[in-house]
Amino acid sequence: MELEAHLLGTSSARPANGREVSGSIVIVGKYQIAIDAGEGFQTRLKKQAKVLKNAKWESRISHTRLDVIALTHGHLDHCWGVLPMLLSMGLDCRNSPLSVLAPLHHDAYHALAKDGMDAKMPDSVPAVDLINQMRFWWELLFDKISSEEMFPIFWYTVSWIDGEEKWLQLDPQNSTVSQLSAPPKPIGPHSLTPHQTIHSVPSCGWRITSADRPGKFNAQRSAELSLSDNQISKLANGEDITIIATSDASSSAPSANSAANEILLASDFRGPSTSGVSILITGDTGAEAPELLALAKAAPLNLLIHESTYSDSHQSNAINYLHSTSRDAAKVATQIAAENLVLTHYSSRFVETEIPLTEAREAHPRVHAGEDGDIFQIERDGSLKIFRISDGSPFQILEPF
Ligand SMILES: [Zn+2]
Predict the structure, then answer these.
(1) In the chain, how many domains are there?
(2) How far is the CA of 13 from the centre of ligand 1 (A)?
(3) What is the pTM of this model?
(4) What's the pLDDT tens digit per position in 42-54?
(5) Rounded (5°) CA angle 398-325-75
């Protein structure tokens, strides 16, 4: 398994019909990322962790193992669960660092960049903007947990100014704001990138792509050349080497008569590299957000988890409230050539998901209607397995499409 996602809430706005509000976990390599954390997220995370433990699942999840919380926007159904989870992490004496990534209103960016951490927010910055929520979290968090006991949290914010990504790093304990010249890289060799979406507040989806893998090392060729372990190790690590070629090909020892330098290129000892696999979780968005489409088209996407608040019959609501219908989600999936689409963020109107699924499948061939607890595994070759929790255990859905 190259990348795994756990969909831990598929309801929009409020818990309804047995579904909880937004929040997902993505596992890539040794890293665990939460994308959104609405009300009760840590409880859902614990419940899923127990399911995995009982099933002797290969990967384990927990709030103490989270490396990143990446938020899509400030609406409470997407972030009301962050503060209690941070408090639990502190109370559980976590030591490892956590990164929190949040989109901010562009005027919040300007105010922070100009006047620092205590900047007064202009009226254009809505109350639910994540800068206001983070300030509230910091106050309560640092009141409850002393700074000596506090685990390190790196706070990063992204805003879009004239279409360009602008990153800040905020340090509430030292009251400093730093402008970053490059996006943070909180998941090692893998990438986590925001894709701006359209909503009533600044919002983005998050794409997670596993690292490219180098091609297979040609051990046979290195054996034929009788290279030393040291030379093999250098080539394997991408370093070109120079050898002394001799008349006797089986020996690399210098020869007085026929010695000549030969350069061996590390690239000649590797097969073609394979690119990573990719998942994009949208958060809330109106139909066909241009930035989302442009960025998402730039690289192949194995799995798109797209909001699907309404069906065709309430398309005017989708337009008015800047949400998507399931057909809109499928159109986006088709436009960006996403291999698979999972619907989520259903209006409380939907007890069953038959209507959204039927409408979406008219616009994309591989659509799955997500439910709370669903697990998605993407293999290195891009193939997808879907598991559903039933009676407390995950079962693979053998024919999801
Ligand atoms: Zn929402």
Answers:
(1) 2
(2) 5
(3) 0.89
(4) 999 999 999 999 9
(5) 100
